[in-house]
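Hey, why these numbers?
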Amino acid sequence: MTTTGRFTIPSEENYAKETGELAELWGADAVRNSDGTHLDADVLALGKKIYSAYFPTRAHNEWISLHMDETPQVYLLTNRILAESTSVDIALMESFYEEQLSVNYDVDPHRYWEVIDRTTGEVVAPELWSVNVEDGTVHVDEVTPMHEYTVSFLAYIIWDPVEMYNHLTNDWGDKEHEIPFDIYHEKTREFVFETFHQWLKDNPQTDVVRFTTFFYQFTLLFDNKHREKVVDWFGSACTVSPKALDDFEAQYGYRLRPEDFIDMGSYNSAWRIPRKPQRDWNDFLTTFVRANVKRLVQDTHAHGKEAMMFLGDQWIGTEPYKKGFEELELDAVVGSVGDGTTLRMIADIPGVRYTEGRFLPYFFPDTFYEGNDPSIEGLDNWRKARRAILRSPISRMGYGGYLSLANKFPKFVDTVTHIADEFRTLHEYTNGAAAEPALTVALVNCWGAQRSWMAFTVAHALPNKQTHSYYGILEALSGMRVNVRFISFEDILEHGIDEDIDVLINGGPVDTAFSGGDVWENPRLVEIIRAWVRAGGAFVGVGEPSSVNRQGRFFQLADVLGVDEERFHTLSVDKYFPQTTPRSEHFITRDVPEDYEIDFGEPILNTYPIHEGVTVLSARGGEVQLVANEYGAGRGVYISGLPYCALNARLLERVLFYASHNEEKYDAWSSTNPECEVAHYPEAKLFCVINNTDRAQATDVRRADGTVESFELEPSAMVWRHE
């Protein structure tokens, strides 16, 4: 087996000897620096491929401190202030961190700011309010008592949010705060390209420029107690400037309001249904960002180096899943791997020569401290990612942070040795091919392909009580034996449903981009999906699919799913629940023990069967949780929620095979134990069985010819067999 290659190791100052030793142990063929570290000459002399992190829009305070009006800007929303008389004073920065953000008093506030009566939604006329720069407030006259008022105002971002996060996490003390800058301004843009060109000349030893990342930070704002206040990994709030707003107006023929960015306090979260201003701004921003990314890439290539993009930090505007990304001619994309979903988010990006995953834990003191065992997180992270790698392999792996911290934990060092060897073995056996899929599944939402593997997310790979019931769909699919596609409602309306799609999934809470909101008021959308299912298609709804109040229905595809949600308007109409089908008697639930309580996540209240021909597979407390429904020649299945766990992944897998009438395909290359999964590689005539737990597991695997092999698997094991 190959014992070197496909691995990037971090290093730091005065750590060359140990870097060489660990590089040998882990089989590293590349070395990188992390934020706040530099590579010594002795490290450069190790003979490894050199990755150099490059930050195009920070780490040059000597420039930006002389041009502080060219830092990035963001629209901020003040606290809601109750008017108790006919005037009100609103403090601008009361809940924001003043070391990160500074009010932009340099522009005309009456042109670029907005005061809104949040009780009525009306914009307050500019002549009725004034700004007091001395005390940082806005005074508003002629207000209505007992109404709430806010100010939407522009602020400079004066401390790079990621460097700030790292600073606070690592207690960097008196280290100078790095000020970000905005290349939308011509002088700064010229400085960025001249500086980078000189850097390329000064760093001939660099093989790969690891852009970390480019120009605009995802939304990451802190409060006055230094806590995260607004975090949206897809947010473009931190991309505005008066110049950009004016240019947008000239190009698109209408002016964006501050409210188009504030969005009543949601800051245009990816959960919000995207409207024309948001989509237009995304197009405007992406066009600008990509044009300048391409310049950096071309300069990189002209100096004989590879260009790698980090999918994180200042990634906003690059839009790796939006049409045209391949035109940037980037060599690679690297990203942080938090689980199977984020692994697929990186691995499935089109238009690059290779992809790389930065695995967890990051070598920072919040994990590597006395008494903790980082190997537990390391193996957990690997198990989550591994099942996804089998379905869509990344080319390389690595870690980041302070190598000196990791080296203090011998058990962790051994764990990484094992993971790296297993990763290389996987590639050697499969030659980088993906395992054979059995079905093609499409998730439909407002974003479509642009947010592939990005649905149901708030912050990158971090759990959230309100999202886990939906995010579990992605995590289950990330390592499942299916092709996964992301399509939009517009795709269906314009092109119909592709012939190769076996199952269509729509899920999410009401009035979100993921369930669809008022898109379901379009009869044409409902017609297309109904006709497709009746002709033999499969539709799976999770949570509040196709939900909008219309014509006495809440789920507009209730007839397909066999389920609707009571919205308290038809309480006088009785509902009758059919007898729940025993688990052992139905294909979907056959693997679930009768005494096991399935985790359906956050409850969807008051769901009920719309007729007594529905097959109820799970119901609790007056709500259905799992239902199957025959619909013409096709089938619909409703699931109230699906947090990720092995049994839920198995449940969803059986739902997909059942709904698409592919039950006869299910047993081939499947595991009898839900904690174990099978990946089949017909070209290599191999299959592997993985144990997704830290405990020993036993399972039987059925081959396509019907023969069965039994496996006793060690914790976290991956075992290969010939067909």
Q: What stands out?
A: The CA atoms of residues 503 and 656 lie 7 Å apart. The mean pLDDT is 96.
